[in-house]
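INFO batch 0412 | record 1 of 1 | parsing
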Amino acid sequence: MRIGYFGDGPWAHQAFEWIISDDSFDIAFVMVRYDKRDVTLIQLAEKNGIPVELSENINSKEFIDKMQQYHVELFVSMSFNQIFKKEMINLPPLGTINCHAGKLPFYRGRNILNWVLINDEKEFGITVHYMDEGIDTGDIILQETYPITDDDNYQTLLDRAYTGCADVLYRALKMIQKNEVVVTRQNDIDLVGMYCGMRQPGDEVLDWNQSSRDIFNFVRALCIPGPQAVSWINGVKISINKVRMVIGAHTYKGIAGQIIGKTESGFFVKTADTMLEVIEFTYDGKIRVGDRLISYE
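INFO prediction complete | emitting tokens
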């Protein structure tokens, strides 16, 4: 099966390796993001003698004309950042598929692994679906779910998703190749679904007037390689990479964001309901009991 591969990042690297190792697949070209070009993916393509394409607008007549010359059967998108319009979607005889690290029809959109942690989900999904003109709304080819525990954070979910996406995409491609696909319409699962917006600078600021559980989830959702959750103490920024729930902590009123004690690993902070222990942080200053962590400089 002849494939046109649109991709970016570690998601695309692992999936590329799985596909290229199967002689029954032929990657006709690799398309990288125009604005931020994936050097690793370019090198993988060149190593395997595969042409690399670039376009600021994949829906332009010029690009579509160029794509027709490759005579591919299927377009595959793995973390590509341009929207495919109808003519591009339908150009290959077998259509266009996308691999999405979300349990569709829920968690459509962007930054899904951050949002599932913020929302305290107990699992996340990886879905391969046919593209249509909506955002992550096409018929589902294959979907898998993966558990989330309190030991997980953004990095551990990323690691699992990189491999999971390669696995689910490869299996979906084999299903298409063997004509074994039985699609599931997303509306048959849920008529409304759910969309997540892209996170932007400023969204990492902590609100200590939340429950300990909500703050715990927020911090682990933004840990390295994310921007880390941030607050300010006496006008100096503190970046918080990890907090720990306090076993047996009681619910009581107090000043949310106030440092109420120091520990061997860090310090305790009062939250809206109980307290948390901050155990991984970066702060250019001295931590004092009684200081307050606030949400502005």
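INFO post-check: The CA atoms of residues 66 and 186 lie 33 Å apart.
INFO record closed
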